[in-house]
Amino acid sequence: MAQKKYVYFYGVSKELTEGDSSMKAILGGKGANLAEMANANLPVPPGITISTEACAYYSKTGGKYAPEMEKQLKVQLKKLEVNMGKKLGDPKNPLLVSVRSGAAVSMPGMMDTVLNLGLTDKSVLGFVEQCGNERTGWDCYRRFIDMFGDVVMGPYTGLTHHDFEVELEAIKKKYRAKEDTDLTAEQLKELVGIYKKVYQNKVKKPFPQDPIEQLDLSIRAVFGSWGSERAEKYRQINKINGLLGTAVNICTMVFGNMGAKSGTGVAFTRDGGTGHSKPMGEYLIDAQGEDVVAGIRTPRHLDDMPDEESKVWKKVHTDLLKIMARLEKHYKYPQDVEFTVQEGKLFMLQTRNAKRTGLAGVRWAVEMATGKDFYTGESQPKILTQKEALMSLSGEDLEQLLFPIFDIIAEKKGKVITAGLPAGPGAAVGKIVFEAADAEAAVAKNADEKVVLVRHETSPEDVGGMWAAQGVLTSTGGMTSHAAVVARGWGKCCICGAGSLKIDYKEKTVTIAGKVYKQGDWISLNGSTGNVYAGQIPTQVSPVVSAVVDGKASAKKDPIYKMYEQVSKWSDANRTINVRTNADTPKDSKAARSFGAEGIGLCRTEHMFFEGDRIWAIREFILAEDQKARKAALAKLLKHQQKDFEGIFKAMDGLPVTVRLLDPPLHEFVPNSKKDQQEMAKRLGVPLKKVTERVQELHEFNPMLGHRGCRLSITFPELCVMQTQAIIGAACKVAKAKKPVKVLPEIMIPLIGTKAELDFLEKIVRTQAEAVIAKTGVKVNYLVGTMIEIPRAALTADEIAETAEFFSFGTNDLTQMTFGYSRDDIGTFLPDYLNEKILPSDPFQHLDQTGVGQLVKMGVKLGRETRPDLKCGICGEHGGDPESVKFCVKAGLNYVSCSPYRVPIARLAAAQAAIKG
Ligand code: ADP
Ligand code: MG
Ligand code: MG
């Protein structure tokens, strides 16, 4: 049987190199990319990579090497020695190596690198002779003892870098050396002696003088660090699952600390903050390894390199830029590289995909695919195809372009006081208020006033205050809580379920981590991360929103807007599914349309019931004793509703509009506080007792499973009558206006569980619609369909499709009812479920494709068996979640519908799904 391969060689030549960048899972990111660079004949110091599988073996066996690994390592080490013409520990001509960790994804928390391994009291002399520089030799040795002591032995002896650092400072003081580089060879040699004592004191053993033992201890330390608490924690927080372990890279040393023609640095092919295509980087002359990032000396800027005193740097600069350009083209992604220059010769030590902001991601994508700088118009190499550019982006990247964001540097400096769910994106800064009314009042008094509404949760009564506020922060509720859904609809910043908030409405204070914040104190929210900051963090407005929503001409010239437009165009050219929006006002509809919405997938009529006087009409309806009184109350609502629909139809001229009949339980429309109930009694001219009794009657133990949805209209058919009259009345009116509007209304009956429920209401809807059409004499085409949001509806979709002309999957309720999780209460146990990996993610954010998704697929399939041209869409919050959108494409839906500000993100996700196929 063939032996399992655990140890790979790279460098010297393409022929000797055994891996490539496709092998990240086995060689780790660092090892795979070192091999890839060696394959491309780039100057990489040769080395060996021990695979992540060897680490897995080591972890599983509680610290044993795989027997094949030990054998293979010996063979590969020999190969390295032969090719380098040096031997580990050789007193005349020693080979020195670094030992580096590297998992498949870059992961802080893993073991730090050890440089200069192989130095001993004997080999240091050979090394000095070989490099002809006594200072370099002793400098390397003292660094090695420090790193080995700290990184390899530290975890179980308590030895730290600091223990060595104090001795370094002491000797610098003793010899009045300002910088480390001012120490002479003799002084460094003295320091090595001191370091060895420091080591022996803590480790209780002398510093190992056998390079094989040094290497063995280092490999074990790397493997061991995989299971360390901080590495585990990091993987948990960042949801990194399914990796085998870390690889170990043993790399031949190259020396940046050999004087004025040597140095080390890091560079990026493009700017990861702004996205600018100019390479940038930093380096230090006469330095090794992490000196650049350690902040020991101030590094120099890459642009200054050609002007260095030593002439070698000019060529190094040219070579480096050439290599970086090659790497970027090769990986089709901007790179972050590490390099070292040894006596004028450049070596590449690492390359990886660079980290970036959303703005940089978009700029990289469009510039790399168009070959044009969006700011200056200058040309640059075309590296990506349109499709590749789209695939390189994420929904979050686009999202960052659409919302006000914090100044990156200022946010870094800010203090996170607590965190919650990132429920509504963007940044918000304002003074704390606790009541919606206070928020409204503050802004009414001074339009420039900035407030943040802080509450346990919000309810439909609070929408005015939520609109007035810059952002909303709640202590309970999840991603589909009232606050979250409403805020996302407006593109407003919102953080939900920040459980550590202790709000005292009476005192008007909120206590966070023991500190009390009063009404009027400043607070800043990052709704894209969920972080909450004390004080004011500066923000910037999105030019995309200014251009798209406000139609500002100057914003349309902004390169950020142009990039957004480019991405959107490409998305539309590639996608196969329509994108609609969830909107219930003409204003939101207009905004959504300018973001590219191709119709309304969900117009929630109840949102129209809260504005102004309307709430009084609906309350009158609720209190009414008989159908006559109910009809009278509804008559007052009719003209308002019809006006709203007229506005929406005009905004969506030529596009379909799905209107859902009243859905929420009626108790949501009556006040809870005594004071408000008194006001209600007075205003409607009834005794208080009647109000309180009715409120009590409306109380339900499980309102989400109670008297709501189609059940309301079955009890009160006059509701369905009024709403149909309003919808079709509006449609006829705008259709026959002087400037006729093309209307395509789709009337949607919610919460159907049986075909009979649908049939009952469909009849009423059709009768009323036909009557209006006959009366106005305008021929308006309309559809009657239903939401599939109760599992029984999905299971009997073939029957339901006999009546329904379209399906819209209401995945919020469908998730709630399939799992049996109340979406308003999931916050109490979801964190435990995520921690224990009982759920992979919040199913209200990311559609559960295995369970809920199956019901969607089944619903589509059964429905189309009955009615082949059945129009199917999704209108839950999932319609704006990229992964869920991709699922919808596969499930054969005709459209997804999401809140207006998520439309561009859904367009991108739909294109990505189509490209991936
Ligand atoms: P990290 O993953 O933390 O970046 P690395 O293993 O890349 O750790 O290395 C830390 C530093 O040491 C980097 O600056 C790297 O360039 C340098 N380094 C690593 N191996 C060598 C080597 N063989 N020769 C010279 N410098 C090296
Ligand atoms: Mg490091
Ligand atoms: Mg590195």
TrEMBL record:
Record-linked PANTHER family: PHOSPHOENOLPYRUVATE DIKINASE-RELATED (PTHR22931), PYRUVATE, PHOSPHATE DIKINASE 1, CHLOROPLASTIC (PTHR22931:SF9)
SUPFAM superfamilies: Glutathione synthetase ATP-binding domain-like, Phosphoenolpyruvate/pyruvate domain, Phosphohistidine domain
Gene symbol of the encoding locus: ppdK
Cofactor(s) listed in the protein's UniProt record: Mg(2+)
EC number: 2.7.9.1
Nucleotide-binding keyword on record: yes
Name by which UniProt lists this protein: Pyruvate, phosphate dikinase
Pfam family, one: PEP-utilizers
UniProt KW Mitochondrion keyword: no
Annotated positions binding substrate: R604, R660, E789, G810, T811, N812, D813
The species this protein was found in: Pontiella sulfatireligans
